[in-house]
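We store sequence with structure; for instance:
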Amino acid sequence: MALLKTHRLSKSFGDLHAVDGVSFEVRAGEIYGLLGPNGAGKTTTLSLLCGLLKPDAGEVIVEGTNFWADPNRARAMMGVVPQEVALYEELSGRENLEFWGRLAGLSAKEARQRAGELLEALSLTDRANDAVQKYSGGMKRRINLGAALLHRPRLLLLDEPTVGIDPQARANLLEYIRGLVAGGMGLLYTTHYLDEAELLCHRIGIIDHGHLLAEGTLAELQDRLGGDRLFVLEGDLSQAEPDHWPGFRERFRVIHKLDRQLVVAAATEREPAACLQELLALPVRVENVTLKRPSLNDVFLQLTGRELRE
C-alpha cells in the first residue's frame, strides 16, 4: 500500500524550476531512496512533502488524502529527520525527546514513557541524562531520529541521516532503520552514500535539475546499462574521442570517460568475447580491459553526467 504519493509535483523560485513534474510513491514496508547531486531538487522535494513549502502544481497524497486537505492529519502520520541535527544541546537526551514528544501532541506521561522506550531501543539509556552537547556525532544522530519517532509515525522522511558519523555508528543506525521498515513503516531516504542506497533501498529514484530521471530496483536500474556487464578500458585516454571512431556509437554506449578510464556498455546483444575483440581494436593504446557488473554509481553517472557529491 502506498503511504505517500506525489503526482507531477512542481515548485519554482523565480526562473529556477527546483522541482519539475516529479511523481513517485513510498509504500508500507519499503525504503525509497531519492538520490541526486547537490542542487538536484531533493531538499525542496522533502520540504514539499512535509508541508514546509506549498507546491506550485501537483499533489502530495498521504494515505489517500491530499496533504493540504488536512495538513494536521498528514503531519501526524509522518516523522521528519532533517539533515542538520535539530536538538537543544544544553538539554539531555531524555529532555529533548520528551520536549519533541509534547510538541507532537503526546501527554507528559506518554512523552516520558515513549522517550524511555526509544532511549532503550537506540542504546542510549546509559547516557539519557547527559547534555546532548557531550554526545558523539553518532549519538546525536540517534537522538535526532528518536525525536521523529515519538508519535509512532507510519511514514518517515530521512534527509542524509548518517552524514558525519563514524562507520560503526553508521552501521548501527542503518540496522535500526531496517528494523523500522520490517515493522511496516515506509521510509523516504536521501543519502550521499551510494553504497547505503545499494544495500538499504528497495527502490531508488534519481533526480537532477528537478526532474525524476529514472526509478526502480537496483537490478532494474542496472539493466538500463546492459544488464550484468560493463567494459572498463584503462590507458592514456586523455585525447580519445569516441564520437570520431567509425561505428563505435552504433556498437557501444559510453557510460563515463576520464583521462585514464573509459566505461562502456554494448549497445546490442553480443558475446563478451566479440565485444572485447572490438574494444582492443580501437585506435587508442589500451593497457587493460575488464568486465564488471554495473554499480549504482555507473547508473547515476550515465543519467546525470556528474558525481553525486558535485
In short: The chain has two domains: 2-217, 229-292.
